[in-house]
Specification:
Layout (H helix, E strand, L loop, with lengths): L7 H4 L5 H5 L22 H16 L9 E2 H10 L9 H12 L4 E2 L1 H15 L3 H11 L20
Antiparallel strand pairs: 1-2
Length: about 160
């Protein structure tokens, strides 16, 4: 069999940009075997609001009663609360969700706190900052929809 030669630009991971900057190690799917961080519990003043927001987004867009928040709703919560920035992207949210669930489709409130801890590590801030931003940013899911114009062929007016 033919053996491929090593390519300097592709195979040498020391030349990757993140390694040259000496910054944090980003989340990756391969990190799932490591132990998860201990979640930072929200302060008592914020805890009920964070749990209420979790419950609101947990049920958003679901047709049947399901336990746990889906990845889609986890990303929607982060977008609606404006948690995303240059370091915390949708991809990082997906990876944090996958790392916490370990193959499941939904996360519980405790797993949600662990996922927020992972997001805070990736963002380079404390989890309490994310908790405060979730409480302060929104009263619930932001729904945007197009309103159809009146049609003389369809509307009975």
């Amino acid at each position: 069999a033919t053996i491929a030669e090593a390519s300097r630009l592709h195979d040498d991971q020391t030349t990757y940009t993140a390694n040259l900057r000496g910054e944090h190690a980003p989340l990756s799917k391969g990190d799932s075997s490591k132990s998860l961080p201990t979640p930072t519990k929200p302060t008592s003043a914020v805890a009920k609001s964070v749990e209420r927001m979790f419950g609101t987004y947990e049920r958003f867009g679901e047709t049947a009663a399901t336990a746990g928040m889906s990845c889609r709703n986890f990303v929607k919560l982060a977008k609606d609360c404006e948690l995303l920035d240059k370091r915390l992207t949708v991809t990082v949210l997906d990876l944090a969700f996958a790392k916490v669930t370990r193959g499941a489709n939904r996360i519980s409130y405790e797993h949600f706190l662990v996922a927020l801890e992972l997001c805070a590590q990736e963002k380079g801030c404390e989890a309490s900052e994310l908790h405060a931003k979730i409480v302060a940013s929104t009263a619930g899911p932001v729904v945007t929809a197009t309103i159809a114009e009146a049609s003389r062929f369809h509307d009975d007016k």
